[in-house]
Design brief:
There is one protein chain. The longest helix is centred in the last third of the chain and has 18 residues, at 104-121. Helix 2 crosses helix 4 (66-78). This protein has helices at 2-17, 27-43, 51-54, 66-78, 90-98, 104-121, 128-145. It contains seven helices and no strands. With 152 residues, it is mostly helical. The termini are far apart.
Length: 152
């Protein structure tokens, strides 16, 4: 009986400490919000909607314009997701993802995606072609997870 009461008390305490899943956004919504924030920075200061960025999540669109890679490097820097030397700022990536109401599993997967794509793309070189490789990696990963925003 004492063990059962202890278990009920422990579960009640955990329920208070752990936010309900309803408090989080869906993975697709989180990715959409992140894309929107990145896109806003990539358009600044002209507020020009670049067709390449506007079509980024369209499955028929091929991500191949090197300018997109340049914009990605600038956006990552502006959001302080990378340091000046090109290394990824893991703490800021975590904060950025969390600020979009991602649940813990989505947060973990997005963080791993950022880290993996950053490393495999040669992003530390901070070149436009490395930024483009990272964008391709991000998109491919998000599509594989079924989290691509929009309906095309």
């Amino acid at each position: 009986m004492v063990l059962a009461n202890l278990l009920v008390t422990l579960l009640a305490a955990l329920a208070v400490l752990i936010p309900p899943l309803a408090a989080y956004e869906s993975s697709r919504t989180v990715v959409n919000d992140i894309s929107s924030k990145m896109g806003d920075i990539m358009m600044f200061p002209n507020y020009y909607v670049d067709p390449d960025m506007d079509n980024f999540w369209d499955p028929e669109y091929k991500v191949q314009n090197v300018r997109q890679g340049c914009l990605a490097v600038c956006a990552m820097r502006a959001l302080r997701l990378i340091y000046r030397d090109g290394r990824i700022n893991v703490a800021n990536v975590r904060r950025f993802i969390a600020s979009n109401n991602a649940d813990p599993t989505t947060s973990w997967r997005l963080e791993k995606m950022f880290m993996s794509c950053h490393q495999s793309s040669g992003f530390m070189q901070r070149t436009c072609s490395a930024g483009l490789a990272a964008l391709r990696c991000y998109r491919a990963t998000i599509e594989q997870l079924g989290w691509a925003p929009g309906s095309y």
